[in-house]
Design brief:
The chain has about 120 residues and is mostly helical. The chain has one domain. The protein has three helices and no strands. The radius of gyration is 23 Å and the shape is elongated.
């Protein structure tokens, strides 16, 4: 309506309002991809020559690490996947809070006292 160029509309109007949604989608997809890759590696469907969290879980399960008393062999990669997912979720929430004004905390103003 105002006669603005398409690049101006995209860069100034659309991208700033969509930034939190784009970042949230990227972080959510990243968590999904890492979890999916670790799951496939755990099932033995991936490249077994690479050392990943999934292959570490696979070898711990195949070797009976929990039964042998070596719980750390299974818990460490599982905890790493869980912590990475939780970290991405918290970063995702932070970007959502920055981009969405309705989620910002409300700060109460202090009443001024007149002396």
């Amino acid at each position: 309506m105002r006669g603005e160029r398409t690049s101006y509309i995209i860069l100034v109007e659309i991208i700033p309002t969509m930034t939190s949604l784009i970042v949230a989608s990227f972080l959510g997809l990243s968590v999904f991809v890492v979890g999916f890759a670790a799951g496939l590696q755990f099932l033995g469907l991936g490249n077994s020559t690479e050392i990943t969290w999934g292959t570490m879980l696979y070898y711990a399960q195949q070797g009976g690490a929990l039964e042998a008393g070596n719980a750390l062999w299974a818990l460490a990669p599982g905890a790493a996947v869980a912590l990475m997912g939780a970290g991405f979720a918290l970063v995702n929430y932070a970007f959502d809070e920055i981009g969405n004004p309705a989620l910002r905390p409300v700060r109460k103003r202090r009443a001024r006292t007149t002396a």
